[in-house]
Amino acid sequence: MRSSGALYFDVEVDAALLGYPLTATLWLTVAPSALESAGRALAGHPQVAFAAATTGPANLVANVGCRDDAALYAYLADDLGGLPGVRQVETAPMIRTLKRFGTV
Hints:
Shape: globular
Radius of gyration: 15 Å
Number of helices: 2
Number of domains: 1
Strand content: 25-35%
Strand order of the largest sheet: 2-3-1-4
Number of strands: 4
CATH superfamily: Lrp/AsnC effector binding domain/regulation of amino acid metabolism (RAM) domain
Helix content: 10-25%
CATH topology: Alpha-Beta Plaits
CATH class: Alpha Beta
Order of helices and strands: EHEEHE
CATH architecture: 2-Layer Sandwich
Distance between the termini: 28 Å
């Protein structure tokens, strides 16, 4: 059933318990010619919990987890800033999560 997709497991873990208390959503504006390579690079970053292509001026979205605000800054400046084709990044740190898939 799992191999056919009829059954799947959705596991949710509080990132703070894994040492990543600061989470943020990022909207990246990437040159179309660099979209695939930037997406593949994001998929390989350990900070990234989720990444997807989207439409509009911000054509990549990602959720990241970092140890603190200095680590988020370093990730934005070094890891994302060093990716070819990345033109702009908008960041929204998560202050609090009110609802998740799992139960409390």
